[in-house]
Design a protein that fits this description.
Largest sheet: 3 strands, antiparallel
Structural class: mainly alpha
Strand content: 5-15%
Strand order of the largest sheet: 1-3-2
Order of helices and strands: HEHHHEEHHHH
Distance between the termini: 24 Å
Number of strands: 3
Radius of gyration: 20 Å
């Protein structure tokens, strides 16, 4: 749910004001149905739920009552929730939910470079600690006669993912230190479609309630 919430808040933030079909179409180009396990039809439900909780503002275009013509904008609470989710997923390793980091990568540009580097360094420390503890955890599994055999291989595949993520995180952090990509407060390094409302070059003020 947290991954879905971040994706919906983030995509609305880019396109706002935008209607449901536009947001659904864009997310499908990101293949979220494959890596975030989001059913395309559930996007509309998610938008309405976020509006119900006060994170999005629903506006009917020209008085139209068709659901597909309702546009969405972030509220002040939605902006706060967006950054809270983004930072929580960036700063915390969750090996069982790799979709969280993939969603985070989609919106890293809305944070400043120094924070992204600090968060990646924190992730490196977390992953190093996990890998240091893994031999002892594996020994405990092997020595416990009540643990089914398949649990050992489940543990090993998780360890392999941790090792792969550690290698990638180190390389990614180095690329960012060397100036790769663009972050908040910096000139854009790509050309968005004219229909997109982006926040390159500044951290926007919270929207009015």
């Amino acid at each position: 749910m947290s991954t879905t919430r971040l994706l919906l808040l983030g995509i609305v933030r880019i396109f706002q004001p935008a209607y449901g079909y536009q947001l659904r179409r864009e997310l499908m180009t990101w293949n979220v149905q494959a890596w975030a396990n989001i059913n395309p039809g559930s996007i509309y439900t998610g938008l309405r739920t976020l509006a119900k909780h006060g994170y999005l503002l629903e506006v009917a275009e020209d008085g139209a009552r068709r659901p597909g013509r309702t546009t969405y904008k972030l509220t002040a609470d939605g902006e706060t929730e967006y950054f809270s989710l983004l930072r929580a997923m960036l700063w915390t390793v969750d090996g069982f939910h790799p979709d969280k980091m993939q969603a985070t990568l989609s919106f890293l540009w809305s944070l400043r470079r120094d924070e992204v580097i600090a968060a990646l360094d924190a992730r490196i420390s977390q992953l190093e600690a996990l890998l240091k503890a893994e031999p002892f955890s594996e020994r405990q599994i092997i020595e416990d006669p009540a643990t089914p055999d398949h649990v050992l291989e489940m543990f090993r595949i998780t360890s392999a993912r941790d090792a792969g993520e550690l290698r990638w995180t180190r390389e990614f952090a180095d690329r960012i230190r060397d100036g790769a990509y663009a972050f908040a407060g910096e000139p854009a390094d790509w050309a968005p479609h004219p229909s997109m409302i982006t926040h390159w070059g500044e951290i926007p003020n919270p929207p009015s309630p």
